[in-house]
TrEMBL record:
Functional pathway: Cofactor biosynthesis; adenosylcobalamin biosynthesis
Name used for this protein in its record: threonine-phosphate decarboxylase
NCBIfam families in the record: L_thr_O3P_dcar (TIGR01140)
Record organism: Domibacillus iocasae
Known catalytic reactions: O-phospho-L-threonine + H(+) = (R)-1-aminopropan-2-yl phosphate + CO2
Keywords associated with the record: Cobalamin biosynthesis, Lyase, Pyridoxal phosphate
GO biological process: cobalamin biosynthetic process
Pfam families according to UniProt: Aminotran_1_2
Superkingdom of the source species: Bacteria
UniProt keyword Metal-binding, yes or no: no
Coiled coil: none
GO molecular function, one term: pyridoxal phosphate binding
Occurrences of domain Aminotransferase class I/classII large (ranges): 24-350
Enzyme class: lyase
Amino acid sequence: MSLPSHGANPSHLYRASGVMKPSSVMDFSVNTNPYGPPNWLKEMWPSFFEAVEDYPDPSGYKAAKLIAERFALSPENIMLGNGAAEIIHFIARHAAGQKVVIVTPAFSEYEEACRAYGCRTEYVPVDVQNWKLPIEILVEQAKEAAVLFICTPNNPTGQVFQTEDLLTLLKETRSFGTMIVIDEAFYDFAGDESITSEITSFSHLAVLHSMTKMYAVAGLRIGYLAASKEIINKLKPYRPHWNVNAIALQVAQKIASDAEYAVRTRKWIDKERERMIRELMMIGFVVLPSAVNFYLIKDSALDNQKPLLQFLLKQGIVLRHTENFHGLDGQWLRAAIKKEQENDQLLSALKEWKSQC
Ligand SMILES: Cc1ncc(COP(=O)(O)O)c(C=O)c1O
């Protein structure tokens, strides 16, 4: 049986690996905010009861307006989705049967969505140890492509491409008619730098955001695309009329007005990430630098990290395999930054692994 294509829902990974699931597990394969959602979410509960009685606003205007204001844009530049994942599918549908370029490694859903719509997918690999966009190759590849996907901060590596390089690529591809999709689902973990406001200078730029990660509302499904009206109008026909539910819309409005939660989370995650990476390297693991709430780790004695993944699964510690990330192919594992006590448990399990080797 092949391993699940995404992190989270660890029962699937246990079943596919043939390891018996212990009664309690710590899921490091899900990379949402370990603090959980902001406290105000609990206080909103009574208002959800009223909200579900009516159909939601199909345009999500109030949420779109608040999001747009954050980036000095107009609400017409924002398309809301049932998670950013839904918007990835609209983009793949727009590119149906055509060439799509994916800078890899990258979030596996681009490839899966492209497959569903019969796109011809080309991969442009980036060396994870020397993280830099290969601009010349990308410009060449973009010439015949309907869409080019770039994920930064990158899932799964946690690394960030330089804004300067992204801007050079945008300038050089301006006349091609290729949609350049920059997925910033994790931008608020890396600092607040976003390329979103550049959509006013580049009508072929589309910036993807998710509210799932920083605000830990994965179950609600809420994300958005910021792009020129031209791009939004191209994708609109694929959007089901009420694609974002009324509860998600209310929460999206609150999230759009609460940047403070991200600032607080970031401070804590930065500190904990530095501690984890330092300690893991001290006990002999190879860890890649990361700007966000997860990192790639490997035991360099193993080509494929499956034995380590299985060892941890038996102890109730779930990491994300990298079998379905182009260019990683199981050579690394991805671990989220969790609360201090859970991170300590991961450290002791990894120390035990090393002591047995
Ligand atoms: C890079 C990236 N983009 C988009 C998504 C989809 O996010 P959402 O939960 O908003 O659908 C994910 C989810 O894991 C992701 O990692």
